[in-house]
Design brief:
Elements: E1 8-10, H1 15-25, E2 29-32, H2 38-43, E3 51-54, E4 64-67, E5 69-73, H3 78-83, H4 89-96, H5 101-106, H6 109-113, H7 126-131, H8 160-166, E6 170-175, E7 178-183, E8 203-209, E9 214-220, E10 231-239, E11 245-253, E12 260-261, H9 263-269, H10 276-288, H11 300-305, H12 307-319, H13 324-331
Parallel strand pairs: 1-3, 2-3
Antiparallel strand pairs: 4-5, 5-8, 6-7, 6-8, 9-10, 10-11, 11-12
Helix pairs in contact: 4-8, 9-10, 10-12
Length: 335
């Protein structure tokens, strides 16, 4: 049985109090909300904070508002986000496909956005990792996926981030020094170790999503429930009265150390209608940006081949095609 290391537990009642604790404790402290990612990592000794600062009692992080856009408190659970009829479709699709109902009832929106990167050589017990002399992400000096690489290539596995990037969302980060707003696409770095631009003393408090998007999210995973994404495709479009695309944003997740926007495909779609030919060309542009590595799950070459298929599914759904049977088939698929 894997056991947690010893730690102190702090239970602030406000964001300001939590930020003050982070500032005073420095690198000894880490935030915990649902704990569905952090606690398993602590058991495997990926992280070993001496102080856990719980956000469970900070009620202001559970706010929701819907006016000129939608605002979500970062401590809302994924189940609450998925079950809210005001949640934009892409975010709802992403939230409801995270893990299992039990984990969605605990895991939070902010926690999923800050999810640690994953890799076959990293997500193992301490003894397993020690047997291979560890890896570049934790305690070692070599990336076992790309041995000549000076950068860790562990993969971003958050579902909600690509959805929110496509929706042009922004997050609020608060520290004892003040607060700032950051676009979700700018929250991430293409580095498996330093994967967030959020500072350790900052708390992700709020997610703001602009209104007016028609959106969707498609996820590839080994099993139709529970698993982390091997591929995440998010698309958000704005149409004019002639059913032409005024603005398009397509984002990929789980294919690099960060989720990212495919700007070339978005520019290509502007002013066009979603014909089969347009969809095929846009899908090829997105697939060309997917540089998958052999460090998560399933056959690498097969995963690369299906990227344009999933982009096509997303765009055809936004065109108005009935894609329910396709979603069901993917959910039941076990290669």
């Amino acid at each position: 049985m894997l056991r947690l290391p010893w730690f102190e537990h702090r239970a602030p009642r406000s964001v300001a109090e939590a930020a003050a604790i982070l500032a005073s404790e420095g690198p000894r402290a880490m935030l915990i909300a649902g704990g569905t990612d952090l606690l398993p990592n602590m058991k495997r000794r990926h992280q070993a904070p001496q102080v856990l600062v719980s956000l469970g009692g900070v009620n202001e992080l559970r706010n929701f508002s819907n006016g000129d856009g939608t605002s979500f408190g970062a401590a809302l659970t994924l189940s609450q986000v998925a079950g809210n009829p005001k949640t934009p479709a892409a975010l709802r699709h992403a939230a409801v496909q995270v893990a299992t109902p039990h984990i969605r009832n605990m895991g939070t929106l902010g926690g999923n956005l800050c999810l640690d990167t994953r890799c076959t050589y990293y997500n193992q017990t301490y003894e397993w990792r020690k047997a291979i002399d560890f890896c570049l992400k934790k305690d070692g000096t070599i990336c076992w996926v790309a041995t000549a690489s000076k950068r860790c290539v562990a993969v971003s596995s958050t579902d909600t981030a690509p959805a929110l990037i496509a929706l042009n969302a922004a997050v609020t980060l608060v520290s004892s020094a003040g607060e700032r707003e950051v676009k979700v696409e700018d929250l991430y770095r293409n580095d498996g170790i330093e994967y967030l631009s959020r500072r350790p003393d900052e708390i992700l408090t709020q997610v703001r999503v602009p209104a007016g998007w028609k959106s969707t999210y498609w996820k590839l995973r080994r099993r139709g429930s529970f698993d982390f994404p091997i591929l995440g495709v998010a698309a958000a479009l704005r149409f004019n009265s002639s059913n032409e695309i005024e603005e398009a944003r397509l984002a990929l997740g789980a294919v690099a150390s960060r989720p990212f926007l495919v700007e070339k495909a978005g520019e290509f779609l502007k002013g066009k209608k979603l014909t089969d030919e347009v969809i095929a060309e846009a899908a090829a542009m997105v697939a060309n940006r997917a540089k998958l590595m052999d460090n998560t799950d399933m056959d690498l070459h097969w995963c690369k081949e299906v990227v344009d298929d999933f982009v096509g599914y997303a765009l055809r759904e936004l065109r108005g095609d009935d894609m329910r049977d396709t979603r069901l088939r993917i959910a039941r698929q076990v290669p």
